[in-house]
Write a structure and sequence with these properties.
Blueprint lengths: L14 H13 L11 H8 L3 H14 L2 H19 L1 H4 L3 H12 L9 H17 L1 H5 L2
Helix pairs in contact: 1-6, 2-3, 6-7
């Protein structure tokens, strides 16, 4: 909404509130950051041989609309910083991918493969976090 927020207000001190708001923002977009029409392509990319995965995912990201690419880069660089502070926050690449994978990447219509999709969603986000500089450059 157009409401002005005071981020110094004590209600914003709980990191779970901020993270929940961030996830809700991405979950409620009309289309996920990894667009619906590329969902199966990303799943197929993560199924490739390990040496080919990064290249395949990087090529797919380049096919996304520029605003999606830019937003993805900023968000994932931030999430990588979260992981780099894992000693304090206990977040790993895998745990961040589990939290954000299904929010950022999902099929347009859910099928009976929800559990399988979740595994791939998490693996894709984890791969991008691990290979961030290879995918987006420095």
């Amino acid at each position: 909404s157009d409401e002005k927020l005071d981020l110094n207000d004590s209600k914003w001190e709980d990191i779970h509130v901020i993270t929940g708001a961030l996830k809700m923002f991405f979950r409620e977009l009309p289309e996920p950051l990894f667009t619906y029409n590329h969902f199966n392509d990303f799943v197929n990319a993560i199924k490739q041989e390990p040496r080919q995965r990064v290249h395949a995912v990087k090529d797919l990201i380049k096919q996304l609309p520029k605003p999606n690419q830019d937003t993805m880069q900023v968000l994932l660089r931030h999430l990588k910083r979260v992981v780099e502070n894992g000693e304090k926050n206990r977040m790993t690449y895998q745990s961040v991918a589990i939290v954000f994978g299904p929010t950022l990447l999902k099929p347009e219509k859910e099928t009976g493969n929800i559990a399988v999709h979740t595994v791939y969603q998490n693996q894709i986000v984890e791969l991008i976090l691990l290979e961030l500089n290879s995918i987006f450059g420095r």
